[in-house]
Amino acid sequence: MSAGGVLVAGSANLDFVVRAPHVPALGETVLGHGFATFPGGKGANQAVACARAGGAATRMLLALGEDAHAAPVEASLRAAGVALEAVRVREQPTGAAFVCLADDAENAITVAPGANALLRPEHLPPLDGASHLLMQLEVPLDSVAAWARAARAAGVAVALNAAPARALPPRLLADCDLLLVNQGELAVLSGVEGVAAGMAMLDAPALVVTLGARGCCARVDGEWLLQPAFAVRAVDTTGAGDTFCGTLVAALARGLPFAQGLRRAAAASALACTRLGAQAGVPAQAEVERLLAAAPAPAAAAHAALAAYCGLDFP
């Protein structure tokens, strides 16, 4: 793996997706109008985004069961150019996610971790050539914490997408160079509502909060950065946040400035919303470049609106 590469350590699932008019309420049965399977899992989605949209040399540590569901997951990663560090397990099947995709592009997801739950601290491969380790929280927390410590000891930057939302031990937070969360995850970690207020409770060197169709807010070494979202007609928001995370970390691994990385990540995640499937929807790097070249710079009013929503006095 060449210098500036990314090692993603995390989950890989097969997504079972039902399209429906709306996400069912508690106790409600909704008649769907489409079904398909797609490779997914936060870790695998982010690895595909690192390689395909971000253009970074990418490896992934993942666990797969010895079942038919493993094959499409592995094939998708390899097709994106991700080198695999695969742990094969007999005790559990390949992870699965059950997704209800509503016609307004919103979704509800239930995950059965399966093999993902068997990733252990000792499974972390050598970090040679990796500048960044990117992780999520769909695998055991003790493994994530151990991998973060190992990466920090090796001088590798630690990026953590703290999703799904849960409280985290202080030591793990202290080992993170980059913390990526959405607004709900920020509230869980910080214990307070509001973007600026929540971010003030966390002291990661770099902290990024994604805000869906509004864009994102970041604080990097004390400097505030705002990136309004690119306007698109959304078809499927599944995996859009993962596309953002992978593309941003790839940009940082390639040495791009943080603000430029945020813009690239926002463009890639916007494109991902226009297609079905968490990994199938990840755009190619050339598509991201075309959108960046064609899209005008955000108007001052867009920055002002985003700053006001976040609770920032920001020009």
UniProtKB/TrEMBL annotation:
ATP binds at N182, T210, L211, G212, A213, R214, G215, G241, D242. Residues 6-284 form the Carbohydrate kinase PfkB domain. Activated by a monovalent cation that binds near, but not in, the active site. The most likely occupant of the site in vivo is potassium. Ion binding induces a conformational change that may alter substrate affinity. Belongs to the carbohydrate kinase PfkB family. Ribokinase subfamily. It catalyses: D-ribose + ATP = D-ribose 5-phosphate + ADP + H(+). Its cofactor is Mg(2+). Substrate binds at N13, L14, D15, G41, K42, G43, A44, N45, E138, D242. Its EC number is 2.7.1.15. HAMAP family: Ribokinase. K(+) binds at D236, T238, A272, R275, G277. Requires a divalent cation, most likely magnesium in vivo, as an electrophilic catalyst to aid phosphoryl group transfer. It is the chelate of the metal and the nucleotide that is the actual substrate. Pathway: Carbohydrate metabolism; D-ribose degradation; D-ribose 5-phosphate from beta-D-ribopyranose: step 2/2. The active site is at D242. The keyword Glycoprotein does not apply. The keyword Cytoplasm applies. This is Ribokinase. GO terms for cellular component: cytosol. It comes from Fulvimonas soli. It is found in: Cytoplasm. It is an enzyme of class 2 (transferase).
